[in-house]
Design goal:
The protein is α/β, with parallel strands linked by helices. Helix content is 41%, strand content 13%. The chain has helices at residues 21-40, 53-58, 70-79, 103-115, 125-141, 155-170, 175-178, 198-205, 226-238, 261-271, 308-311, 326-333, 366-376, 378-401, 426-442, 470-490, 505-508, and strands spanning 5-8, 11-14, 148-152, 187-192, 213-216, 242-249, 274-279, 303-306, 319-323, 405-407, 415-420, 449-453, 456-462. The strands form three sheets. A seven-stranded mixed beta sheet has the order 3-9-8-7-6-4-5, sandwiched between helices. The radius of gyration is 25 Å and the shape is globular. The chain starts with a strand and ends with a helix. Bound molecules: pyridoxal-5'-phosphate (PLP). Pyridoxal-5'-phosphate (PLP) binds at residues 97, 154-156, 159, 196, 198, 251, 253, 278, 280-281, 307, 319.
Length: 510
C-alpha cells in the first residue's frame, strides 16, 4: 500500500503528501546539497556532452503505473537530466542568446512552487510582489510610474503583448469585437531586416499575416535605415495601407545592433505610429552605467519587451511587457467573467493580473527576480552587463590578433561574430567553421552558435553570462584555432571526419 493512503471509517482517502515528512526532508536536504555542488563545480564539467543511448531510453519509457520512492525518482533525474544539461549555466556557453541563471533565482522558483500562488490575481502577497517587479522593470528602463506591464514566459510573449496592444489601438475599429477582417485598411508594421523571428509569429498569431510586417533594410552597422523606413511608410499610405507600428531593436539577435531609438521615437510620433521596442537583448543596458547611452530613447516607447531571463539571469522563464498607456493595455486584454468578479474585501479584492495578458492562470515568476535583485542590488546587474560588453570587446581584440581568425565587425554590445579563415570561401568555409563549432561542443570546450550576415556564414559568440572570465575567451580562441588547423589538415571533407573524444573538462580550466 502506498504510504499516503489512509482509512477513515472504511473510506480510503489519499493525498500526494507523504505520511513521513522526515523522509522527504532528508531527500530534500540532499537535493539542495547536490544543487549547491552542481553550480559551484559547473566550470569543472564539459559545457555539453552527447547523451548515451541508455539515457535517451529513459525518456521512451511508458507512463509509470506503480509508485517509486522520492529518492529513486531523484536518482533517475540526477543520472539523466542533471547530467546532460543544455549547458547555458556554464561559463563557456555563448550560443544563441540566453542568461546563465543564478542560485538565488532557483531558490525563488522553488519557493514560488512551494508557496503555490496563482498569479492570475487576487489579494495576496505574491500578487503585490508581481506588480512590484513590473514596477521595478519600469524604473530600470525609465518608464513612467503610470505605465502598466506584465510578467510573461519570455521575450516572444512580451513582444506579442506589446504588438497586440499596438494592433488594437491603431486598427481604427474594435478588433476585439469585430476581428481583423473588419479592419478597413490593412495594417502595416515595420521593423528592420534583422528583426527576431518571434515577430513573424506574432504577426501570424495576430491575424495580420507575415506580409504585414515590412522588413526595412539596414545600414552597414545592421541598424534600421531610417530614410528607407520613411519611404516605406509613405509608399504604404499611398497604396491604401494603414501604417500602424514601428518596432525598434534594442539589440538584434544576430549582432546586437541597436537601432537609433530616439530617431524611431520621433518618426513614430510624426507618423502617428505605435512605437514598440524589442528590448529582449538590450533593454536592460539601461541599468549599465558605461553603456546605457546606447539605448537612449527606449523610455519614449509605447511598449517594450524585455527579458529578465537574459541579462538579469533569472532561471527560465520570465519576460516582461511594459505598456506606456495602461488604459490601452487593459482595454486590449481585460475580461471579467462571472466567476472572476472582484469582491470588496477578501481574496478576490486584489487586482486581476490576468487582465494584462492572455493567460488566466499565471506562475509566480516574480519571486526569482525579486530575490536576486534584493540580494545583489540592481547596480551589480548593471555592472555585469558592462562586464559582458567589455568581454566582447576583449574577444574581438583576441580575434584580430590571430591571423587565422576573421572578425565580422567590431561588436556593438556583447555579440561577436567571427570565423576561421585559411583562405577558403563559400560552402567550404562554412563547412570548416561548422565543424569547428561542432567539435567545440562535442569536446565540451565551449558552445557557440552560427548565423548568416550579408549572405556570409559566421560563428557567433553571445556573452550573456555572469560566469564568463576573460581566460574562458582566450581558451576558446586558442581551441577554435587549433581545431581549425586540425580540420583543415584532415583534408577537404571535414564532414566525414571522426569526432575526437571529449577532452576532460578539468584540463580546460585555466
Ligand atoms: C531580440 C530578441 N527578441 C525576442 C527574443 C525572444 O525571446 P524569448 O526567447 O525569451 O522568447 C529573443 C531571444 O533571444 C531575442 O534575441
Amino acid at each position: 500500500m502506498d504510504d499516503a493512503r489512509k482509512f477513515f471509517d472504511g473510506v480510503t482517502e489519499e493525498t500526494l503528501d507523504p505520511l513521513d515528512w522526515g523522509d522527504v526532508q532528508a531527500v530534500s536536504h540532499r537535493i539542495i546539497d547536490d544543487a549547491v555542488d552542481y553550480l559551484r563545480d559547473v566550470r569543472d564539467r564539459p559545457v555539453w556532452r552527447e547523451m548515451p543511448d541508455n539515457v535517451r531510453e529513459v525518456f521512451t519509457a511508458s507512463l509509470p503505473r506503480s509508485p517509486s520512492s522520492l529518492a529513486a525518482v531523484y536518482g533517475e533525474v540526477s543520472r539523466t537530466v542533471m547530467s546532460y544539461p543544455m549547458g547555458n549555466i556554464h561559463p563557456r556557453f555563448w550560443a544563441w542568446y540566453m542568461g546563465s541563471s543564478n542560485f538565488t533565482g532557483a531558490l525563488g522558483d522553488f519557493l514560488a512552487a512551494i508557496q503555490g500562488s496563482n498569479l492570475g490575481g487576487g489579494n495576496h502577497a505574491a500578487g503585490l510582489m508581481d506588480s512590484q517587479v513590473v514596477n521595478w522593470c519600469k524604473e530600470m528602463l525609465g518608464f513612467p510610474a503610470s505605465a502598466s506591464g506584465t510578467l510573461v514566459s519570455g521575450g516572444s510573449m512580451a513582444n506579442i503583448i506589446g504588438l497586440t496592444v499596438a494592433r488594437n489601438t491603431k486598427a481604427g475599429i474594435d478588433v476585439r469585437e469585430h476581428g481583423v477582417a473588419a479592419i478597413e485598411k490593412p495594417l502595416r508594421f515595420y521593423g528592420s531586416d534583422q528583426i527576431h523571428s518571434c515577430h513573424r509569429k506574432a504577426m501570424e498569431a495576430l491575424g495580420l499575416g507575415n506580409r504585414a510586417l515590412r522588413r526595412i533594410p539596414t545600414d552597414a552597422g545592421l541598424r534600421i535605415d531610417i530614410a528607407a523606413l520613411r519611404a516605406a511608410i509613405a509608399e504604404d499610405r499611398a497604396a491604401g495601407f494603414r501604417p500602424a507600428c514601428v518596432i525598434g531593436n534594442a539589440g538584434t539577435v544576430n549582432t546586437g545592433a541597436i537601432d537609433d531609438l530616439q530617431a524611431l521615437a520621433k518618426l513614430a510620433h510624426e507618423e502617428d505610429l505605435w512605437f514598440h521596442v524589442d528590448g529582449c537583448i538590450g533593454a536592460l543596458i539601461a541599468i549599465a552605467p558605461r553603456n546605457k547611452h546606447r539605448v537612449a530613447g527606449i523610455e519614449w516607447a509605447d511598449s517594450v519587451a524585455l527579458d529578465p531571463h537574459k541579462w538579469l539571469h533569472a532561471p527560465f522563464e520570465v519576460g516582461c511587457a511594459l505598456v506606456r498607456d495602461a488604459v490601452a493595455h487593459r482595454k486590449t486584454f481585460a475580461v471579467t467573467p462571472e466567476y472572476l468578479e472582484s469582491t470588496p474585501r477578501g481574496l478576490a479584492s486584489g487586482e486581476w493580473l490576468n487582465d494584462y495578458g492572455l493567460q488566466t492562470s499565471r506562475g509566480f515568476r516574480a519571486l526569482k527576480v525579486w530575490m536576486a535583485l534584493k540580494q545583489h542590488g540592481v547596480d551589480k546587474f548593471g555592472r555585469l552587463i558592462d562586464q559582458n560588453i567589455a568581454q566582447a570587446g576583449y574577444l574581438s581584440e583576441l580575434i584580430e590578433a590571430e591571423p587565422l581568425l576573421e572578425l565580422a565587425a567590431s561588436p556593438t554590445i556583447n555579440i561577436v561574430c567571427f570565423r576561421y579563415q585559411p583562405g577558403l570561401a563559400g560552402g567550404a568555409l562554412k563547412a570548416l567553421n561548422t565543424e569547428i563549432m561542432l567539435r567545440l561542443q562535442e569536446q565540451g570546450i565551449a558552445t557557440l552558435s552560427d548565423t548568416t550576415l550579408h549572405g556570409e556564414h559566421w560563428l557567433r559568440v553571445a556573452i550573456n553570462n555572469h560566469r564568463t572570465r576573460r581566460t574562458d575567451l582566450e581558451l576558446m580562441v586558442r581551441e577554435a584555432t587549433r581545431l581549425g588547423r586540425k580540420i583543415a589538415a584532415e583534408g577537404s571533407r571535414p564532414e566525414q571526419s571522426i569526432p575526437e573524444q571529449p577532452i576532460d573538462a578539468i584540463d580546460l580550466v585555466r
